[in-house]
Amino acid sequence: MKNPSTSLAEQGEGEGDAEGHPRVAPQRTCAGCGGKASRNTLIRVVANADLHLVVDSQRALPGRGAWVHPAPECVAGAQQRRALPRLLKLPGAAPVPSEEFWRELALAALSEAPTASTHE
């Protein structure tokens, strides 16, 4: 059995299984648009111990994660739909995501965004 903490590249992504089926990267759903994409192309958001949302730029923080395309319209969609607290299953008493968090997420989206939009 492969170590779940190793990346797909380290696990031999593309090599295939014993039956010759190619290995496929896990797909995640964007909280903003609902489109599916590889986790390597999305920004991960988690809630810290104080239930505040943080951008997980290394995709390594513990806990349930929510994913957003690195596109301004997806960040805006996630904010407008109030999707992140719901997807992270935060209790009703959890703090509302701060404007600072949304700015940080928008900056992360801009820094990771491809030159042309790659999602639908």
UniProtKB/TrEMBL annotation:
Database matches in Gene3D superfamilies: YlxR-like
Annotated region (Disordered), positions in chain: 1-27
CDD domains: YlxR (cd00279)
InterPro entries named among the record's database cross-references: YlxR (IPR037465), YlxR-like_sf (IPR035931), YlxR_dom (IPR007393)
First and last residue of the signal peptide: none
Domain named YlxR: residues: 28-91
Name of the protein in its database record: YlxR family protein
